[in-house]
Amino acid sequence: MKRHLALGVAVLGLFGAGFLWTAGQGTEPAVTSFSAEAQEVSEDVDTSMIQEMTLGEADAPVQVIEYASFTCPHCRSFHETAFQQIKENYVDTGDVEFVYREVYFDRYGLWAGMVARCAGPERYFGLVDLIYEQQSEWAKGGPAEIAENLRRIGKTAGLNDEQLDACMQDAEKAEALVAVYQQNREADDINSTPTFIIDGEKYSNMSYDDFSAILDEKLAEAE
User: Fold this and answer.
1) CATH number of the structural domain spanning residue 164
2) Mind listing the pLDDT tens digit for each residue in 89-118?
3) Which domain holds residue 94?
4) Which residues have a Cβ under 8 Å from the Cβ of 116 and sit 6 or more positions away?
Protein backbone atom coordinates (compact mmCIF):
# COMPACT_ATOMS: atom_id res chain seq x y z
CA MET A 1 0.00 0.00 0.00
CA LYS A 2 1.67 3.25 -1.12
CA ARG A 3 1.37 5.48 1.90
CA HIS A 4 4.57 7.45 1.94
CA LEU A 5 6.04 8.49 5.25
CA ALA A 6 7.25 11.87 6.46
CA LEU A 7 8.73 12.65 9.83
CA GLY A 8 6.19 14.49 11.92
CA VAL A 9 3.30 13.41 9.72
CA ALA A 10 3.60 9.63 9.80
CA VAL A 11 2.75 9.56 13.50
CA LEU A 12 0.29 12.29 14.37
CA GLY A 13 1.44 12.48 17.94
CA LEU A 14 4.40 11.77 20.14
CA PHE A 15 3.75 11.30 23.81
CA GLY A 16 4.83 14.37 25.71
CA ALA A 17 3.34 15.36 29.04
CA GLY A 18 1.47 12.08 29.36
CA PHE A 19 -0.32 9.30 27.55
CA LEU A 20 -3.78 9.31 29.07
CA TRP A 21 -6.39 6.63 28.66
CA THR A 22 -9.03 6.84 31.35
CA ALA A 23 -10.73 3.51 31.93
CA GLY A 24 -14.45 3.41 31.29
CA GLN A 25 -14.76 7.06 30.32
CA GLY A 26 -14.17 6.85 26.58
CA THR A 27 -11.20 9.19 26.86
CA GLU A 28 -8.75 8.97 24.00
CA PRO A 29 -5.00 8.75 24.52
CA ALA A 30 -3.68 12.30 24.64
CA VAL A 31 -0.89 13.16 22.20
CA THR A 32 1.06 16.22 21.21
CA SER A 33 2.20 16.64 17.63
CA PHE A 34 5.86 16.78 16.69
CA SER A 35 7.77 17.79 13.62
CA ALA A 36 11.04 19.64 14.02
CA GLU A 37 12.09 17.42 16.91
CA ALA A 38 11.18 14.17 15.18
CA GLN A 39 14.61 13.60 13.65
CA GLU A 40 16.20 13.81 17.10
CA VAL A 41 13.83 11.35 18.75
CA SER A 42 15.55 8.21 17.56
CA GLU A 43 18.91 9.51 18.78
CA ASP A 44 17.82 10.62 22.24
CA VAL A 45 15.35 7.96 23.36
CA ASP A 46 16.39 4.77 25.16
CA THR A 47 15.07 1.98 22.95
CA SER A 48 16.51 -0.95 24.93
CA MET A 49 13.05 -1.80 26.34
CA ILE A 50 11.60 -2.58 22.90
CA GLN A 51 11.65 -6.26 22.04
CA GLU A 52 11.81 -7.55 18.48
CA MET A 53 8.73 -9.66 17.78
CA THR A 54 9.62 -12.88 16.01
CA LEU A 55 8.26 -16.30 15.05
CA GLY A 56 10.33 -19.36 14.27
CA GLU A 57 13.88 -20.36 15.03
CA ALA A 58 16.52 -17.64 15.45
CA ASP A 59 19.04 -19.84 13.58
CA ALA A 60 16.71 -20.59 10.66
CA PRO A 61 18.53 -20.48 7.29
CA VAL A 62 16.34 -17.63 5.96
CA GLN A 63 15.10 -14.51 7.73
CA VAL A 64 12.01 -12.56 6.65
CA ILE A 65 11.27 -9.11 8.08
CA GLU A 66 7.82 -7.70 7.46
CA TYR A 67 7.15 -3.97 7.83
CA ALA A 68 3.42 -3.50 8.32
CA SER A 69 0.87 -1.04 9.67
CA PHE A 70 -2.14 -2.15 11.69
CA THR A 71 -4.25 0.40 9.80
CA CYS A 72 -3.15 -0.79 6.34
CA PRO A 73 -5.80 -2.88 4.48
CA HIS A 74 -3.16 -4.53 2.29
CA CYS A 75 -1.27 -5.60 5.41
CA ARG A 76 -4.46 -7.13 6.77
CA SER A 77 -5.02 -8.99 3.50
CA PHE A 78 -1.45 -10.34 3.51
CA HIS A 79 -1.72 -11.37 7.15
CA GLU A 80 -4.97 -13.24 6.59
CA THR A 81 -3.81 -15.05 3.45
CA ALA A 82 -0.17 -15.41 2.41
CA PHE A 83 1.26 -15.05 5.91
CA GLN A 84 -0.74 -17.98 7.24
CA GLN A 85 0.68 -20.23 4.50
CA ILE A 86 4.21 -18.92 5.03
CA LYS A 87 3.93 -19.65 8.74
CA GLU A 88 2.66 -23.18 8.16
CA ASN A 89 5.03 -24.13 5.35
CA TYR A 90 8.23 -22.30 6.27
CA VAL A 91 8.20 -20.82 9.79
CA ASP A 92 6.76 -23.80 11.66
CA THR A 93 9.12 -26.14 9.79
CA GLY A 94 12.21 -24.26 11.00
CA ASP A 95 13.17 -22.90 7.58
CA VAL A 96 12.31 -19.23 8.19
CA GLU A 97 12.61 -16.82 11.07
CA PHE A 98 9.81 -14.27 10.68
CA VAL A 99 10.27 -10.79 12.19
CA TYR A 100 7.30 -8.44 12.43
CA ARG A 101 8.06 -4.71 12.64
CA GLU A 102 5.31 -2.18 13.23
CA VAL A 103 5.04 0.88 10.97
CA TYR A 104 3.23 3.93 12.37
CA PHE A 105 1.46 5.82 9.60
CA ASP A 106 -0.84 7.36 12.19
CA ARG A 107 -1.48 7.43 15.92
CA TYR A 108 -4.07 4.66 15.65
CA GLY A 109 -1.47 2.22 14.37
CA LEU A 110 0.72 3.15 17.32
CA TRP A 111 -2.15 2.65 19.77
CA ALA A 112 -2.85 -0.77 18.25
CA GLY A 113 0.82 -1.70 18.56
CA MET A 114 0.82 -0.77 22.24
CA VAL A 115 -2.26 -2.91 22.87
CA ALA A 116 -0.68 -5.85 21.01
CA ARG A 117 2.47 -5.58 23.13
CA CYS A 118 0.51 -5.24 26.35
CA ALA A 119 -0.01 -9.00 26.60
CA GLY A 120 3.71 -9.76 26.30
CA PRO A 121 5.65 -11.55 23.55
CA GLU A 122 3.94 -14.89 24.15
CA ARG A 123 0.51 -13.50 23.21
CA TYR A 124 1.63 -10.73 20.87
CA PHE A 125 0.85 -12.52 17.61
CA GLY A 126 -2.51 -13.70 18.91
CA LEU A 127 -3.46 -10.06 19.47
CA VAL A 128 -2.06 -9.14 16.06
CA ASP A 129 -4.48 -11.70 14.58
CA LEU A 130 -7.40 -10.06 16.38
CA ILE A 131 -6.37 -6.52 15.44
CA TYR A 132 -6.17 -7.40 11.75
CA GLU A 133 -9.30 -9.54 11.85
CA GLN A 134 -11.30 -6.65 13.30
CA GLN A 135 -9.54 -3.82 11.45
CA SER A 136 -12.62 -2.67 9.57
CA GLU A 137 -14.54 -2.42 12.85
CA TRP A 138 -12.08 -0.92 15.35
CA ALA A 139 -10.59 1.68 12.97
CA LYS A 140 -13.90 3.52 12.53
CA GLY A 141 -15.04 6.69 14.28
CA GLY A 142 -13.23 9.38 16.20
CA PRO A 143 -10.15 8.97 18.41
CA ALA A 144 -12.11 8.20 21.59
CA GLU A 145 -14.19 5.55 19.84
CA ILE A 146 -11.13 3.94 18.25
CA ALA A 147 -9.38 3.90 21.62
CA GLU A 148 -12.35 2.15 23.20
CA ASN A 149 -12.53 -0.34 20.32
CA LEU A 150 -8.89 -1.26 20.88
CA ARG A 151 -9.57 -1.67 24.59
CA ARG A 152 -12.28 -4.19 23.75
CA ILE A 153 -9.85 -6.19 21.62
CA GLY A 154 -7.38 -6.21 24.49
CA LYS A 155 -10.05 -7.48 26.85
CA THR A 156 -10.97 -10.21 24.38
CA ALA A 157 -7.40 -11.46 24.75
CA GLY A 158 -7.73 -11.53 28.54
CA LEU A 159 -6.32 -8.14 29.51
CA ASN A 160 -8.10 -6.17 32.22
CA ASP A 161 -8.58 -2.42 32.65
CA GLU A 162 -5.64 -2.10 35.02
CA GLN A 163 -3.27 -3.82 32.61
CA LEU A 164 -4.51 -1.80 29.64
CA ASP A 165 -4.21 1.47 31.56
CA ALA A 166 -0.65 0.63 32.61
CA CYS A 167 0.32 -0.08 29.00
CA MET A 168 -1.41 2.89 27.46
CA GLN A 169 -0.10 5.39 30.01
CA ASP A 170 3.50 4.34 29.37
CA ALA A 171 4.72 7.44 27.54
CA GLU A 172 8.33 6.31 27.74
CA LYS A 173 7.56 3.09 25.90
CA ALA A 174 5.49 4.94 23.31
CA GLU A 175 8.39 7.25 22.55
CA ALA A 176 10.75 4.27 22.35
CA LEU A 177 8.44 2.50 19.90
CA VAL A 178 8.37 5.55 17.65
CA ALA A 179 12.15 5.85 17.87
CA VAL A 180 12.69 2.20 16.93
CA TYR A 181 10.26 2.59 14.04
CA GLN A 182 12.17 5.64 12.77
CA GLN A 183 15.52 3.88 13.04
CA ASN A 184 14.29 0.79 11.18
CA ARG A 185 12.49 2.86 8.53
CA GLU A 186 15.64 4.80 7.74
CA ALA A 187 17.91 1.75 7.82
CA ASP A 188 15.75 -0.26 5.39
CA ASP A 189 14.35 2.67 3.36
CA ILE A 190 10.72 1.80 4.09
CA ASN A 191 8.14 3.99 2.33
CA SER A 192 5.15 1.68 1.88
CA THR A 193 3.51 -1.31 3.53
CA PRO A 194 3.68 -4.17 3.55
CA THR A 195 7.38 -4.28 2.69
CA PHE A 196 9.58 -7.33 3.19
CA ILE A 197 13.29 -7.77 3.75
CA ILE A 198 14.21 -11.32 2.81
CA ASP A 199 17.81 -12.12 3.71
CA GLY A 200 18.75 -8.48 3.19
CA GLU A 201 16.85 -7.92 -0.07
CA LYS A 202 13.79 -5.65 -0.16
CA TYR A 203 10.50 -6.73 -1.77
CA SER A 204 7.06 -5.17 -2.07
CA ASN A 205 3.74 -6.88 -1.43
CA MET A 206 3.25 -10.15 -3.33
CA SER A 207 1.17 -13.29 -3.53
CA TYR A 208 1.98 -16.44 -1.60
CA ASP A 209 3.15 -18.19 -4.78
CA ASP A 210 5.67 -15.43 -5.52
CA PHE A 211 6.77 -15.34 -1.88
CA SER A 212 7.18 -19.11 -1.82
CA ALA A 213 9.31 -19.06 -4.97
CA ILE A 214 11.67 -16.52 -3.40
CA LEU A 215 11.90 -18.48 -0.16
CA ASP A 216 12.62 -21.73 -2.02
CA GLU A 217 15.41 -19.99 -3.95
CA LYS A 218 16.90 -18.53 -0.74
CA LEU A 219 16.72 -21.90 0.98
CA ALA A 220 18.45 -23.58 -1.94
CA GLU A 221 21.25 -21.00 -1.76
CA ALA A 222 21.60 -21.60 1.96
CA GLU A 223 22.19 -25.35 1.55
Assistant:
1) 3.40.30.10
2) 999 999 999 999 999 988 999 999 999 999
3) 52-222
4) 70, 124, 127, 128, 131
